[in-house]
């Protein structure tokens, strides 16, 4: 029977762990999507132009949430989630509830790539990386948009390696949360056209929920607080509600 020499055992274990941690995405699940094509017809929040992402073997349209690229100015766009409230043709109900690269848009013919190493990358047309999940070689095996609006990267066991619920922009969905200590926060945008981060920030601190106002005069000014959160490490704020079963 073949045995591993004790001198090589540490190296063997290291290589085994390295192999396990590397990306294991099946070729059928990888994709490279180029941002182009016709825009949608409905009126949306911010009067944005938009395109539904259509990727084989990746279900991007699970009502009431769908994955899109949208543009508010020129040819620059953002990867986002669209909330339809279950009525995709009701123009007054179309809302953007999560943005990957709101303050760092990409141009026409940029790409969204889910590679074999398990990293989801949004790159500009010149190759510049505008946003990524940072999950390269971390055991990611699949990508899925859940019916609660959570975009997730999962390992073979179905555990989440990365999820959009941990990285909200200006909206909390049912099941997402702010965590104590400012590890994530809600940040307002400058305007409907400008998606840069300003001026309000909603943060869960040690014993309160606080909204901060940034300005050129005050570096950070606490605008409003909700005290007595010391007993709860996580506070959930419901923004949108859906009756569609998971």
From TrEMBL:
Gene3D superfamilies: Bulb-type lectin domain (2.90.10.10). PROSITE patterns: BULB_LECTIN. CDD domains: B_lectin (cd00028). Residues 1-23 form the signal peptide. SMART domains: B_lectin. Pfam families: B_lectin. Keywords: Signal. The keyword Signal applies. This is Ep1-like glycoprotein. It comes from the Eukaryota. Residues 43-166 form the Bulb-type lectin domain. InterPro entries: Bulb-type_lectin_dom, Bulb-type_lectin_dom_sf.
């Amino acid at each position: 029977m073949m045995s591993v020499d004790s001198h090589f055992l540490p190296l063997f274990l290291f290589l085994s762990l390295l192999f396990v941690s590397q990306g294991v995405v099946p070729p059928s699940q990888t994709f490279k999507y180029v941002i182009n094509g016709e825009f949608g017809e409905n009126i949306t929040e911010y009067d944005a132009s938009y395109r539904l992402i259509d990727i084989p073997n990746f279900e991007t349209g699970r009502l009431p949430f769908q994955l899109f690229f949208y543009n508010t100015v020129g040819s620059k766009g953002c990867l986002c989630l669209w909330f339809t409230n279950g009525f995709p043709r009701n123009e007054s109900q179309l809302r953007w509830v999560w943005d990957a690269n709101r303050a760092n848009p990409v141009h026409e013919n940029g790409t969204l790539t889910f590679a074999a190493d398990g990293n989801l990358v949004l790159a500009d047309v010149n190759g510049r990386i505008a946003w990524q999940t940072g999950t390269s070689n971390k055991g990611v095996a699949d990508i899925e948009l859940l019916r609660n609006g959570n975009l997730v990267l999962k390992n073979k066991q179905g555990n989440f390696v990365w999820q959009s619920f941990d990285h909200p922009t200006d909206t909390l969905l049912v099941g997402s949360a702010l965590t104590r200590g400012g590890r994530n926060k809600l940040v307002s945008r400058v305007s409907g056209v400008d998606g840069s981060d300003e001026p309000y920030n909603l943060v869960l601190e040690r014993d309160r929920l606080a909204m901060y106002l940034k300005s050129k005069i005050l570096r950070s000014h606490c605008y409003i607080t909700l005290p007595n959160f010391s007993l709860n490490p996580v506070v959930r704020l419901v923004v949108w509600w859906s009756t569609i079963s998971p």
